[in-house]
Specification:
There is one protein chain. Helices cover about 45% and strands about 5% of the residues. The protein is mainly α and about 140 residues long. It has a two-stranded antiparallel sheet. Helix 2 runs parallel beside helix 4 and helix 4 packs across helix 5. The protein starts with about 20 loop residues before the first helix and ends in a 10-residue tail after the last helix. The C terminus is likely disordered.
């Protein structure tokens, strides 16, 4: 039996187009439904918000909001190899039941656009991971 919810849920993806396990998630009585709250309209607002980020602090706040509202971790860190370009930054949205494949692709793409527009955010990410060797000590 499917759970009854009092908030709008993301509409179903076409059969075979997604692996979000929406029905299985709705069938579990104690499942975390937060990822399903991201409707297509809310997704578009989120993408626009991500693309408008201008500072590292805004990016960190947005990561916290995604974690609290969707229950999903947005990981942004330097890749395992040398970082020579923006492509060396790994941007990954945690895979969770109820999170559409399209969302798992569109959110990291929006973050990459924001980083491309504001290279100072990329430098701050590198600095936060001590890749510049600046640790604030004299």
């Amino acid at each position: 039996m499917l759970q009854q919810v009092s908030f709008p849920l993301r509409s179903e993806c076409p059969p075979g187009a997604c692996v979000c396990d929406r029905e299985r998630l709705l069938g579990e009585p104690d499942a975390d439904l937060r990822p399903l709250r991201l409707t297509r309209m809310e997704e578009q607002k989120l993408i626009e918000r991500i693309e408008s980020i201008a500072t590292y602090d805004e990016l960190k706040r947005l990561q916290d909001r995604i974690r609290s509202n969707l229950g999903v971790e947005l990981k942004i860190a330097p890749g395992p190899n040398e970082v020579r370009t923006l492509r060396g930054i790994v941007i990954l949205l945690e895979d969770r039941p109820g999170l559409c494949r399209k969302v798992r692709q569109s959110i990291p793409a929006a973050v990459r656009k924001a980083l491309d527009r504001h290279p100072e955010i990329t430098w701050a990410i590198l600095d936060a991971h001590d890749l510049f060797g600046i640790d604030g000590r004299d």
